[in-house]
Amino acid sequence: MTVTIDISPKQDGKILKEIIREGVGDETPSAGSNVTVHYVGTLLDGTKIDSSRDRNEPFKFELKKKSVIKVWDIGVATMKKGEIAVFTCDPKYGYGAKGSPPDIPPNATLKFEIEMLDWKDEDLSPEEDGSIERYQIVEGKHHSTPQEGVLVNIHLTGMYNGKVFEDRDVQFTLGEGEEYGIVEGVEKALEKFKSGEKSRLRIKSKYAFKDEPKPEFNIPPNATVEYIVELKSFEKSTEMWTLKNEELIEQAKIFKEKGTNYFKANKYSLASNMYRKSASFMTFEGNFKGDLKTERDNLLLSANLNLALCYLKLDRNVEAKDVCNKALELSPQNEKALFRRGQAYLALASPEIAIKDFQTVLEIEPKNTAASKQIAICKDLIKKQLEKEKNLYVNMFDKFAQEDKQKEEEKLRDQSDVMNVTLGEWGQEERPGGRDATAFEKENPNILMLNANGTGEFQDM
């Protein structure tokens, strides 16, 4: 016996659900989940309007992202894995008063039989590689989310292999979580949280503890961990467009000072976050003029130079090169920017490019001994690269020569085989046809050849 349930938002019978087959487990997909379903859509009279089953191709979509009609977002969110249900919906939750000609008439009440095949939790990772996945337990309120630099108040429960390794309330400035033992993946996820939201996060090692073991928690290197995170509250961030130029500069100074303090404490990741934030205030389109423009340019140059140094420390050499380029746009002959870009190129195994930056540094300041040492390193690496390439080519040519020699020997052997077949055993001084060789033939065996008609007559030499 099936039961019909009213799942419409206002409980007014506009969306009715009838479960045909129960699903498994207790969980249903949350907002942002990538769901995979089969479906058959019909009008009330049974006329089929669409079917993924007929195409033998399951349908995939992102839940509650307004990519499908409302009945789907509402109905599929109630389904468990393996469940089959029929949803009957008012036009308000389908295609409305206009319908979708020619298959769906105006003001059509629709029925959808949907089978929940599977879903994946929402991917929050910057690279969209599943390294940070979110499953919402409690949806948040309002639309605003915390931004880097604001104070957040959260409850955090960390788990590995089902065992809790931390459970605490913590308040910190977003972007500085490392100082409070907050892994990077939690911070990145919080930027997508709404106030009051509670979610489960599955975080792979690249955004958790990386290759460092945590013996105090029995967590091995390269471990995937889970967190239950509740965003209790957060300060509303100050929008840059509301700030005056003097206030933008003041904020940039605050973050620069924070970055310097973290750098001195060898906390390069935190320092890079602060310098990047400082630069963001200076790259906002404020109308800086006169002394304010000079101060703004100096702050931005300093932030980029310091950021490059942090990236070099973190072995993020491509990013170091990029921010050096930004610094050089402001100050084309800046020694530090050229030197650090050269270091980045050197770390990226491009000594032939790096040496140009170090040579330019020497042109600007001939007494720069650090640049001289780097040039020597570049020359040594270039020399080794050339020797390696030379040996590679020598070996390659030797190989080709050996192959040519082998081919020539095979060719000669083939020719010898042909001669033996054609001339027979002339080494026994016999003529074709069985007659004995003449005295002249015995004296001149090398000029014996068969002619075209096979008679064995002499050929002109």
Notable characteristics:
single chain; 461 residues; six-stranded antiparallel beta sheet; 13 strands; extended; disordered C terminus
What percent of the residues sit in helical stretches (DSSP H or I)?
25-40%
Q: Order of helices and strands, N to C?
A: EEEEHEHEEEEEEHEEHHHHHHHH
Query: Count of helices?
Result: 11
- How does the helix and strand content classify structurally? alpha+beta
Q: State mean pLDDT (0 to 100 scale).
A: 88
What gross morphology would you assign? extended
Rg (CA only): 38 Å
The main sheet comes to: 7 strands, antiparallel
Strand content: 15-25%
Query: Tally of extended strands?
Result: 13
Describe the structure.
The protein is α+β, with helices and mostly antiparallel strands and 461 residues long. It has helices at 52-55, 70-76, 184-190, 245-264, 268-283, 290-313, 317-330, 335-347, 351-364, 369-423, 439-443; strands at 4-6, 15-21, 34-43, 48-51, 59-62, 84-89, 110-120, 122-123, 132-138, 151-160, 163-173, 198-203, 225-234. β3 and β4 (48-51) form a beta hairpin. α4 runs antiparallel to α5 (268-283) and α8 packs antiparallel against α9. Residues 418-435 and 446-461 have low confidence and may be disordered.
Summarize the structure.
The chain is an alpha+beta fold. The chain has helices at residues 52-55, 70-76, 184-190, 245-264, 268-283, 290-313, 317-330, 335-347, 351-364, 369-423, 439-443, and strands at 4-6, 15-21, 34-43, 48-51, 59-62, 84-89, 110-120, 122-123, 132-138, 151-160, 163-173, 198-203, 225-234.
